[in-house]
Specification:
Layout lengths: L4 E6 L3 E6 L4 E7 L8 E2 L5 E6 L4 E6 L4 E7 L4 E6 L5 E6 L4 E6 L4 E7 L4 E6 L6 E5 L4 E6 L4 E7 L4 E6 L5 E6 L4 E6 L4 E7 L4 E6 L6 E6 L4 E6 L4 E7 L4 E6 L5 E6 L4 E6 L4 E7 L7 E5 L23 E26 L9 E7 L3 E2 L5 E4 L6 E9 L1 E7 L5 E7 L3 E8 L9 E11 L4 E2 L3 E24 L20 H5 L20
Antiparallel strand pairs: 1-2, 1-28, 2-3, 4-5, 5-6, 6-7, 8-9, 9-10, 10-11, 12-13, 13-14, 14-15, 16-17, 17-18, 18-19, 20-21, 21-22, 22-23, 24-25, 25-26, 26-27, 29-39, 30-34, 31-33, 32-33, 33-36, 34-35, 37-39, 38-39
Length: 518
């Protein structure tokens, strides 16, 4: 299967589906009355649409572009959040003061949670440990324990809280206050207010960049703009003009595009997040409200085999051959960061020390740390838990010029992810592998006894298996060229010097006559 990236936009009693990278309208699907803010499941197989005027949620199959089920919920549902396993959804019922908990595999409501007055948005922590609900008429955020489906805390925020988003590390909650024209930043460990960020007029929704955790985006309904927030500086770094009365917005999985639904002029603004400029504007048949963007199907699933009977295959292919190879069935990328990694300086050297280099070996999975647990509601997918260690070698020079090396490992990296990991016959084994690239991010900071370094690491996790793979071949390799002999250096060095082909006249013998670009 070749995966496409779509945008699902709620219109008047329908959802319009666009191909994100061609901006082409793929389909329009009828749903309930006045659909609000949809959400795609993390596995990419479904989109849940709350129908504000019908008191229902429509479940759309992304592969077939059809409605699988219509689920009755509370009054005036507005927003949806879905847990990381794509099995449970949380729907805010703004007219009932409740949240409906939906089992996605069975399309049924399994619990109803009472929250504040006028709940309008809902977000879930990326590890699934907490659910947050903004209560627009109570000026609060309810914190829900998803294990017990009970409210465990209530956080006061600004006036008419609306959109919610969590930082990629789950440490901070960003709450858009529509009546206060600002964003509350909450410490999720203490539920305390960290900061208030002023934005535009009547802000509505907020979206995080899934690739670059530094940026979040807020739609300003009254200002016809989008505020770009720095999650490190906790301030607005730029403001982007969009269409009239922007509401819902979402970022593509690669972090390069921001889609904004403009209710006031029936348009969609597509923003290039690298330049923070408008890349395109699409007209819609009715005023759009919400938008959710993502791949059709899971990026973790394997692709279908190539059809070798395809008449358009390359003419140079002469045969199909079987090779034994370790095939990658699934892979995913994460980033790890150690902002203040401290290493003790070596003894025996004469301070002060200077930094020479720091090199890293590829990460290794700690033996015995792997735990693979199948997910019942997601056939062929498993919860994969393991620990990674990354060795390093630090080289320092003391004041006498003597070099010292310090070896060790970075702090353990504990992983808890979802991977394609289907059951197999007993004779076949899947392998879990990791590949890392680690680098120093800032200049080292020395004290009298330690050195402090910021370190970042890219971690790719792979599920592999040894298989016989059928591949197209171009025949056997051609006859290779003759090997190049290493030249023997003549005893008389002047022989080479007098040979103009071996020692040409130096091009930099004379000073340059003018500036050049070379």
């Amino acid at each position: 299967m070749l995966f496409e990236t779509h945008a699902w936009v709620t219109l008047d009693n329908a959802v319009a589906i666009y191909n994100v990278y061609s901006d082409v309208l793929v389909a329009t699907i009828p749903v309930g009355i006045a659909p609000a803010f949809p959400k795609r499941t993390p596995d990419g197989t479904k989109v849940l649409v709350p129908n504000f005027g019908s008191n229902t949620v429509s479940v759309i199959c992304t592969a077939g572009n059809l409605v699988l089920a219509t689920i009755p919920v509370g009054l005036a549902p507005t927003s949806v959040a879905i847990d990381p396993t794509s099995t449970t959804a949380y729907v805010t019922n703004s007219g009932s003061g409740t949240v409906s908990v939906i089992s996605i595999p069975t399309h049924t409501v399994v619990s109803t949670i009472t929250v504040g007055t006028g709940p309008v948005d809902v977000a879930i922590a990326r590890d699934g440990s907490r659910v947050y609900v903004s209560n627009g008429d109570s000026n609060t955020v309810s914190v829900i324990n998803p294990v017990t489906n009970t409210v465990i805390a209530t956080i006061p925020v600004g006036t008419s809280p609306n959109g919610l988003a969590l930082s990629l590390d789950n440490t901070r909650l960003f709450v858009v206050n529509s009546g206060s024209n600002n964003v509350s930043v909450i410490n999720t460990a203490t539920n305390a207010l960290l900061s208030l960020i002023p934005v535009g007029s009547n802000p509505q929704k907020i979206a995080a960049n899934p690739v670059n955790p530094v940026f979040m985006y807020v739609s300003n309904f009254g200002s016809n703009s989008v505020s770009v927030i720095s999650t490190t500086g906790l301030n607005v770094i730029t403001t982007i003009p969009v269409g009239v009365n922007p509401l819902g917005l979402d970022v593509t999985g690669d972090g390069t595009q921001l889609w904004v639904a403009n209710e006031g002029d029936s348009s969609i603004s597509i923003i290039n997040t690298l330049t923070n400029t408008i890349a395109a504007a699409l007209p819609t048949s009715f005023p759009p409200r919400g938008v959710t963007v993502g791949r059709v199907g899971s990026a973790l699933s394997p692709s279908d085999p190539i059809d070798l009977t395809d008449p358009y295959q390359l003419e140079e292919i002469t045969e199909s051959v079987c090779i034994i190879v370790e095939k990658v069935y699934a892979s995913c990328l994460q980033r790890e960061c150690f902002p203040a990694f401290i290493i003790t300086l070596p003894t025996g050297g004469v301070p002060p020390f200077t930094f020479v280099s720091m090199t890293f070996s590829t990460g290794v999975i700690v033996p015995g740390s792997v735990v693979i647990t199948p997910i019942p509601a997601r056939p062929n997918f498993s919860r994969v838990q393991f620990t990674i260690q990354i060795p390093y070698t630090l080289t320092l020079r003391d004041s006498t010029g003597t070099l010292f090396t310090v070896t060790g490992t970075l702090p353990d990296i504990n992983k808890d992810i979802v991977m394609y990991f289907p059951p197999t016959r007993p004779e076949f084994d899947f392998n879990l592998r990791v590949e890392t690239r680690t680098e120093v991010l800032t200049s080292p900071l020395f004290t009298t006894t330690t050195i402090q370094i910021a370190i970042g690491s890219f971690v790719i996790t792979k599920v592999t298996g040894l298989v016989q793979l059928l591949v197209p071949a171009f025949g056997f390799c051609p006859e290779p060229p003759m090997c190049e002999e290493f030249p023997n250096i003549p005893e008389n060095p002047c022989i080479n010097f007098f040979d103009a082909t071996l020692t040409p006249f130096p091009s930099d013998f004379f000073p340059p006559q003018q500036d050049t670009c070379q």
